[in-house]
Amino acid sequence: MEHILSILIFFPAFAALIGFLVKNDSIRMYAILVTAIEFVLTVFMWTNFDSSIADMQFTEIIPIIESYGINYLVGIDGISLFLVIMTTFMTMISVIGLTEKRNLKHLIITILFLEMTMVGVFVALDAIIFYLFWELSLVPMLYIIGAWGGQLRIYAAIKFFLYTFFGSLVMLVGMLYLGYVYYQTTGNWSFSILDWNMLVLPFDMQLWLFVAFFAGFAIKVPMFPFHTWLPYAHGQAPTIGSVILAAVLLKMGTYGFVRFSLPLFPDASVYFTIPMAILALIAIIYTAMVAYAQEDMKQVIAYSSVSHMGVIILGIFALNVEGIGGSIFLMISHGVVSGGLFMLVGVIYDRRHTKMMKDFGGLALVMPKYATIFGIMLMASIGLPLTIGFVGEFLSLIGFFKVSPVLTVIAGLTIILGAVYMLVLYKKSFFGPITNEENRKLQDIKGREIAALVPLIAVVIILGVYPKPILKPVDKSVSQLVEVMQIKAVNQSTKVRLLESNSIGEVKND
Amino acid sequence: MTSIPSVVIDFASLNFATIVPMLMAIIGALVILCVDLVNRNLDKSLYIMLTILFLLVDLGTLIGYSGDVRGFFDLMLVDGISILSQAIMVFASILFIFTTMSKLRFQEFRYPEYFALYLFVVAGFQFMVSSDSLILIFVGLETASMALYTLIAMHNRKNAIEAAIKYFTMGALATAFFAFGSTLFYAVTGTVELGQISEILTNSNFENYPVILLGVVFLLGAIGFKLSLVPYHTWVADVYEGSTATLAGFLSVVPKIAGFVVALRFFEIFLASGDIYVEIILYATVVLTMTIPNIIALLQTDIKRMLAYSSISNAGFAMGAVLIGTTQATNSLFLYWIMFFITNLGAFTMLWLNRDKSKELSSDHSLEKYSGLIKVSPFTASMMGLFFLSLAGVPPFALFWGKMYLIGSAVNAGYIILALIMAINSAIAAYYYLKPIVYMFLKEPVENNNIEYMANSTTAVKTLIGFCAIVTIFSIFFVEPLLNIISYYVQISGY
């Protein structure tokens, strides 16, 4: 088990290289096998994961640039465990549902490389290695959007790349500065997050470093007002690109907040709680309204993603166990649900080559199975109890309730607004008479599509009813995170605030 | 009648060994010329091999030094950074001359003089970095520049002469600047040796400060011309466009490393004493050099011109290390330049291999020429894509480590704003490096354009490309050993 994480990172990369030698007609089966093996490996890792330990597990360290303290350091805890599993699961599902025919081999090789970088981001514990995977993930995504996308694909791809590239460079300056601070305090260079967690930083330094890291993470999330790249990227990306973008790449940003910003800058996190919450609230409400105005089904889901990411941010900046734990659960559930929704739109796009709601109507009559699955996913997206979407949203909001009941109530509107735009989408496309004659002959989903969608539905319902297997290890690591924050806080007010929001009305998960 | 005092030359103090490396290059040049006198019909690959051979001997003799050797009446100073920069220059020259092993050897390689001049260039720059006397620096600079003007003119394109004349005129101006700047320093201090200038200036507490500052400005102009710092950069794009891709690559790497060493030696005098005006001038130069060419590069439609502006901007980055002035910054300067050299060698060689004479396109390396390359020639496209990603600073490719270490050294020295400007510039640069990538990977190929990609390739050059690609991809494993070597040499010369 010692090298399991390295295997998880580099197996897809090697598979991608070998993929060049696979014949075109069997490349799809090759991809399914590779991603399935990768998923099974992550599940295997989960079974060996000791959820009673809050610390990093399966850590591995190889020195790279010793004189500057850069090591290949990987490890996994409750926070990142399920993000990795969700990554490999969604990659597998999206490859199974893949319908793209143009230049398939390049697409599959690119996806496998992308999988390497995604897993790498979630398990890297050295800031430079984290940054390496973080930036490298842009390249395959650029190619996926730019080569297989729609009309404006090149514009969308460049916008996506440049936006995120710029933010990350500012973050890099912050990382290098933290390395320097560590050197000044201890006399040794280190870029390990575990080492950095020992640092106690003065308040002003925390403030500007928080802003530097914010530049990297907020653009990736994307938070309002840095979200403008996302609708373009989603609108133009092919189905598989949208699925992976929504399911995994966006989570890198929120994961970054949890992994870096909170434990490293506890006082700054408290200081910025309200501004962050307000940005998140604007994202929640504003983008939900924008989503309502969309005519393109994919854009509705794209904007709904921004809205849901706002809830995740809100949960994180509740700075208590329920909020952070809930937001991590919401990251996973949003990954599954939004990925699933993008796949569903892909299904209809394959058949009709349009994603406009006005072209449809009465789809429930011709495609009953499709309509059922779409309906379940949609309910999960809205956050209906007993679906996966409910748990995370509920916990995030309950976490933030302790911070500010007023803001939470406003944020609660997301459930109503979400219900509005999603149900309108459903009504326009699925109910009513069949307005377009072309739709009469549409085939219901079958074969590969069912194979891809049914596991998603299973996950949505099973984890919606019984979320404990995920919540328990997550909460374990999150409690430790909150403790670290309390210990490291330099301002007394921060300690009080963290203590308060973590003691009243504790939600027990045992 | 006063008698002329007799001059006694002690052979030991002459320390002949200090010029052995340059001598190897010069002897090589003479041998090539003599061989050509004897027999005019020899195959040109002989000259290539002779050049490589002499440069290898040159490199071999360099390794023997361990630093701080003086010779020739204290004119020569072979210290750590001299050895290091000479080694980089000679190594780079070997690899760049290797690119002439291409299939269609163009006009200029039919003359053996090309190779002789090439060796003279290398020798000139070697002299330039191995002295702290302004006179000898000047001699080295001129030797190299004169030969370079001719090299650029030896190109069968109509804009080659234009490029050479442009370079020559600007070079002459820079020469005048250098001479005048040196004179001013001689006037104030009575010496042209940088070490003594530093001592005298410090002891006299920078008397005659306006004159000194004027001298600094003139010398900055002269060095700035070689380093293509803003505002002395205007020649770069035209000269690169007019010369062959390999020579343009050579120009973007080798003369600059010589310039950086001179800049290091020269500006150390002022930065070490905390001279605020010089620091401001240098700071402004660095920021402008990073930013302005970056913005101009955004507008280019020709890849070679784009690379020209990007190399100016990269010079600005590296010049930042001179400004910062810490040991770590000096280390990062060399690391940055080695990484830049490998990537640039790859990028320019790829352009060289695709040289063609089709008339429809607006220029030799217009972006349209490369559209849809991934479908036509996947190898070419992926290699070029790799080098552009590296130039853009995407990890884990070569130049990222240079950028990271350089920004790191800026941060550690307290230059946070400079580090942020560097970061922002990297983001701007990413946009124009993306342009060729977008053309190659995301656009459809142009129909019937009659371009034969890789028409100029041979196994030898492909091997070179492969070497660059491997170093670029796996540079993460080279950073640590390189840093060890660099810091050893930088430390023994005290920078």
Jot down its keywords.
heterodimer, A: 510 residues, mainly alpha, 2 domains, two-stranded antiparallel sheet, 22 helices, disordered C terminus, B: 495 residues, two-stranded antiparallel ribbon, 20 helices, ubiquinone binding (chain A), transmembrane helix (chain A)
Quick rundown:
The complex is a heterodimer of chains A (510) and B (495). Chain A has 510 residues and is mainly alpha-helical. Chain A has helices spanning 4-19, 27-48, 78-96, 104-123, 127-136, 138-148, 153-186, 193-196, 203-220, 229-236, 239-264, 266-271, 273-293, 297-316, 321-352, 363-366, 368-382, 388-401, 405-430, 448-465, 468-488, 492-503, and strands at 57-65, 70-76.
Please describe what this structure looks like.
The complex is a heterodimer of chains A (510) and B (495). With 510 residues, chain A is mainly alpha-helical. Chain A folds into 2 domains: 1-254, no CATH class; 272-465, no CATH class. Chain A is 74% helix and 3% strand. Chain A has 22 helices and 2 strands. Chain A has helices at residues 4-19, 27-48, 78-96, 104-123, 127-136, 138-148, 153-186, 193-196, 203-220, 229-236, 239-264, 266-271, 273-293, 297-316, 321-352, 363-366, 368-382, 388-401, 405-430, 448-465, 468-488, 492-503; strands at 57-65, 70-76. In chain A, strands 1-2 form a two-stranded antiparallel ribbon. In chain A, a hairpin with a 4-residue loop joins β1 and β2 (70-76). In chain A, α3 (78-96) runs antiparallel to α20 (448-465) and α18 packs parallel to α20. Chain A is globular, with a radius of gyration of 22 Å. Chain A starts with a helix and ends in a 7-residue tail after the last helix. Chain B is mainly alpha-helical and 495 residues long. Helix content of chain B is 72%, strand content 1%. Chain B has 20 helices and 2 strands. Chain B starts with 10 loop residues before the first helix and ends with a helix. The interface between A and B is large, with 35 and 36 residues. Chain A: This is NADH-quinone oxidoreductase subunit M.
